[in-house]
């Protein structure tokens, strides 16, 4: 494999304070950036090492902001003279490098203090590079080796464990500097000291009784151009939530360590948080992808147009810490590319119970909040903001200053003048801070293997559960409007906007405005059709059902709903169970469209599935539930037992005019609906509501509503999902009504409305 050109440069006469000892080691430090011409190095590392060099030379006088331009130019010249490029490929290359590293200080008559290797290469090469460094480039006795690794440390828990095991073969844990540059952000590194310095104010309120919610947000306007290879394998959750945002979450929720410099104590406190985190799954997250993403990735990676990626570029996740301090406080972690602004913050919003009779817009009634502005958006600097209705915090130390809201800007519902604001005296890039810390042997921004693995253990189940999920497409920038807003229902979240997003599959070349992203509505077989990606389609159907229920209850006090079996409606049942708390279940009667002749307690029974996925989760009165009587007199569906008649009588007795408010149907590959098949003598049921039928597939015996019963309904929804139904959907679109051959074509509500709910997989194939 061809390594990126390697950069080595040498810092002469550096001063290095070794951690754990007060003695200062004077000596020469070699710095090697493996991958010195890559993206990371170009963007941050050169500048950071230059800053370090300038700091060393000028003894903490930063350049260029404080040094003169001429001085800086001179420094740069000297700095570049120290730099050398070398190709690193083979073991010999590393041996040559080791020789050079030894040689340089010897020539200058200097002692070596240590060697710092910064791996700015893809993580897939870490183990190999580490092995070569260990084999060929270890320094002598008493000199240190520091190998800096940037995330990603793996792709999931298994791969992270594998990488950790491999690296351990070459490097000791204290030689590995796994960095998270977010920990080098000035405001992030101030979170724990801030919590400690303001303990008196915070202790009484830093808990579930006072905190309404926390938001940890990284919004970016950038796309992924130039990084598609990496990004498409990782996506937003692995790229920033699993690491940067999780670290911020830990700093906000961990116990404040008594000794801030004790890394063992810090790690233990972080692990305690991980052990209290509630497991997350699909319902804890919403994901999106900006519209141009696929064409960018296809172009950069030479992929075909058919090669569609579902990698999310946006995610919103709700996390809960289940301990006595935070139980019930939702913590939102959100990040996305191609959003409307470039900003990162952690916001702690406190409950405000004050009701001001005189002036509801007074500060007393305004949001009570602390904002750690990690990367500035509207403000020009990163800062810590504490709303004045909370308390006046202590200014950290000389490196921080208090400022007054200079501009007439509002932030999170409060004018700047409503905050106490603190900023670092000198703004420093995170990588600069991290590089300097590592150079000085400090582990402040280092991720220990235990917490890294604990984080993967937390995120991996969610990542697995989202692997097949199609993200919501968003136009990007301000056009996205509120498409990505999400909301909390209990401990789950969903997008607030029911709009269905069309993917590039459906709209190649369409213009990217919010209008293009609405629900696709159309006509199918002369009836209304709603179409969308599966998840959004289910959301829409559930919302339509709820609307029908509310309308019926308002009109007559009751809602009669008849539900089909099969696999298509299962997602709907789950959706209704989890997201529709306000559904008028107390006033809803559930009927069955059809049933298999098996005991209701068996998994093959339609009622059993309905019970598992919906009924047991909602509060519906028992007497409102109407399973079909397929099991009478200890036998299944025997004509003489009169099951269909019993059900028919119940319908006539309880349902006004035997007209259900909503009947939900599916369609089989052969065009059957309910349990009405090609072989079913439909004509003979003209005056019946319920009949026994024979299915061509097992279990053969069925009980079913008739077309007459279905067509009396006020609304009929036909749900069709999945690619395997595509052929059938195409065929059905072409044929005339022929119920005996295609029972579904006999569904023509006499006074009611028919709506087809067809997902894109079924519609577009
Ligand atoms: C990096 C991610 O770790 O963090 C990038 O790989 C992201 O995708 C960046 O843009 C954000 O960092 P910052 O410092 O610019 O907020």
Automatic annotation (TrEMBL):
<dbReference type="GO" id="GO:0050661">
    <property type="term" value="F:NADP binding"/>
</dbReference>
<dbReference type="InterPro" id="IPR005900">
    <property type="entry name" value="6-phosphogluconolactonase_DevB"/>
</dbReference>
<dbReference type="GO" id="GO:0004345">
    <property type="term" value="F:glucose-6-phosphate dehydrogenase activity"/>
</dbReference>
<keyword id="KW-0732">Signal</keyword>
<keyword id="KW-0313">Glucose metabolism</keyword>
<comment type="pathway">
    <text>Carbohydrate degradation; pentose phosphate pathway.</text>
</comment>
<dbReference type="GO" id="GO:0009051">
    <property type="term" value="P:pentose-phosphate shunt, oxidative branch"/>
</dbReference>
<keyword id="KW-0560">Oxidoreductase</keyword>
<dbReference type="GO" id="GO:0006006">
    <property type="term" value="P:glucose metabolic process"/>
</dbReference>
<feature type="domain" description="Glucose-6-phosphate dehydrogenase C-terminal">
    <location>
        <begin position="194"/>
        <end position="479"/>
    </location>
</feature>
<keyword id="KW-0119">Carbohydrate metabolism</keyword>
<dbReference type="Pfam" id="PF02781">
    <property type="entry name" value="G6PD_C"/>
</dbReference>
<dbReference type="InterPro" id="IPR036291">
    <property type="entry name" value="NAD(P)-bd_dom_sf"/>
</dbReference>
<dbReference type="Pfam" id="PF01182">
    <property type="entry name" value="Glucosamine_iso"/>
</dbReference>
<dbReference type="InterPro" id="IPR022674">
    <property type="entry name" value="G6P_DH_NAD-bd"/>
</dbReference>
<dbReference type="InterPro" id="IPR001282">
    <property type="entry name" value="G6P_DH"/>
</dbReference>
<dbReference type="GO" id="GO:0005783">
    <property type="term" value="C:endoplasmic reticulum"/>
</dbReference>
<keyword id="KW-0521">NADP</keyword>
<protein>
    <submittedName>
        <fullName>Hexose-6-phosphate dehydrogenase/glucose 1-dehydrogenase</fullName>
    </submittedName>
</protein>
<feature type="domain" description="Glucose-6-phosphate dehydrogenase NAD-binding">
    <location>
        <begin position="76"/>
        <end position="188"/>
    </location>
</feature>
<dbReference type="GO" id="GO:0017057">
    <property type="term" value="F:6-phosphogluconolactonase activity"/>
</dbReference>
<feature type="domain" description="Glucosamine/galactosamine-6-phosphate isomerase">
    <location>
        <begin position="534"/>
        <end position="756"/>
    </location>
</feature>
<dbReference type="InterPro" id="IPR022675">
    <property type="entry name" value="G6P_DH_C"/>
</dbReference>
<dbReference type="Pfam" id="PF00479">
    <property type="entry name" value="G6PD_N"/>
</dbReference>
<dbReference type="InterPro" id="IPR037171">
    <property type="entry name" value="NagB/RpiA_transferase-like"/>
</dbReference>
<dbReference type="InterPro" id="IPR006148">
    <property type="entry name" value="Glc/Gal-6P_isomerase"/>
</dbReference>
<dbReference type="InterPro" id="IPR019796">
    <property type="entry name" value="G6P_DH_AS"/>
</dbReference>
<feature type="signal peptide">
    <location>
        <begin position="1"/>
        <end position="22"/>
    </location>
</feature>
